[in-house]
Amino acid sequence: MKRIDIDDDLYTYIASHTRQIGESASDILRRLLDVNSTESAVDAKSEQTESVFNRLNEQDVRIQKSVVARFLYILSMLYRCHPSEFSQVLDIRGRDRQYFARSEEALLTSGNSTNPKQIPDSPFWVITNTNTTKKKAMLTQVAEKLGYQSADAEKIRDFL
């Protein structure tokens, strides 16, 4: 993946065409320019193990309008970078409830007022009615489960 610098007005234009939480600038541009991805199987495999820092940047996170939207966006980026390992997050639990599941129903039955939301572009769901501090702790746990060192996990958490 290559990085390019663009003017703020162009970035705002691209971001204004977002259709769903977690949609990347590349996805938006592909749609606007009607360009299909031609990744080879090798490219797709290497993408599965890329660092989230290759995809996650402060500007993309900042355009998300709420803490919950930023939380879901970051989780979506982690899923996109580590789809085959992401099921490990199912082990992350609180004292009294489950934080992640493969269905909304599983989270609804695990506690009161869980407010489950689907992680964009993934088959996973997460509870969202926790405070920001707990969401940051959950992001740290997710990053560590996916193999990030503690210092990098904290950098991911700090995007929230």
Automatic annotation (TrEMBL):
Pfam family, one: SeqA_N
Every Replication modulator SeqA C-terminal DNA-binding domain range: 53-158
Domain of life: Bacteria
Gene Ontology cellular component terms for the protein in this record: cytoplasm
SUPFAM superfamilies reported for this sequence: Replication modulator SeqA, C-terminal DNA-binding domain (SSF82808), Ribbon-helix-helix (SSF47598)
Signal peptide feature range: none
Family that this chain belongs to: Belongs to the SeqA family.
HAMAP family hit by this protein: SeqA
Assembly notes: Homodimer. Polymerizes to form helical filaments.
Protein name: Negative modulator of initiation of replication
Species assigned in the record: Idiomarina rhizosphaerae
